[in-house]
Amino acid sequence: MTTGSTKPAKSEITFFSRGGQGGITSCQILAEAAYIEGYKDVMSIPQIGAERRGAPIRAFLIISQNIIRTVSAVTKPDVVLVFDEAMLKLPPIINAIPRKNCKVLVNTKKLNKETPLSDEIEIYTFPGTSIAMNLGLTLEGLPLVNVPILGAFSKLTGLVSMESIEKSLQNKWSEKAEKNIKSIHMAFDKTIKVN
After folding, report:
1. pLDDT tens figures, 36-75
2. 61 vs 26, 33, 118, 133, 135, CA distance in Å?
3. How many helices (H) and strands (E) does the chain have?
4. pLDDT digits (tens, 9 = 90+) for 150-178
5. Gap between the Cα atoms of 153 and 131, Å rounded
6. In 3-state terms, what secondary structure has residue 43?
7. Residue 95: count of CB within 10 angstroms of its CB
8. Distance (Å, rounded) from C-alpha 81 to C-alpha 47?
9. Could you count the other beta carbons within 10 Å of the beta carbon of residue 48?
10. Could you give the angle at the alpha carbon of 163 between the alpha carbons of 157 and 27, nearest 5°?
11. CATH topology assigned to domain 10-108+119-193
């Protein structure tokens, strides 16, 4: 990893997913990829309660070029990953997204014009659901966007390279990682800035 001035000393990421979408797994894979990338310290923090399939779930990731000295949930994320556009209708989620100085990535082909996101943040979209369905990345018929979203993350932030994400996927699934690796490249190519 090049630790020049292009990458911040510390970045905080919030994952908003639903139970069964693999948000916590996604956070853990990205944490390992950041470590592979050469960050000195990473911290993956799942917020687990009485979740059920479909219920909103949060996970937090801090990646740093220095030792992380405090352990806490992310309250002012630099990047927010939203696995399901419908989650933007939930006040607790909208209220947790900063009004400025933030990049938000939403899994949708086209963002609803009525979205309550601030005009002062960078908003990106990618068609994670269709990518997952096309590649057969499903669980009980439901699309898993937790891996494709990592390719989109790499494109919009540049914080973690595709090569490091690929290595993390190979570490997790070895020869079964092929479809997942394909999905991150498809998501990378199809991620667009909305505003």
Report:
1. 999 999 999 887 665 566 678 899 999 999 998 887 778 8
2. 10, 12, 22, 27, 27
3. 6, 9
4. 999 999 999 999 999 999 999 999 988 99
5. 15
6. strand
7. 8
8. 15
9. 10
10. 60
11. Pyruvate-ferredoxin Oxidoreductase; domain 3 (3.40.920)
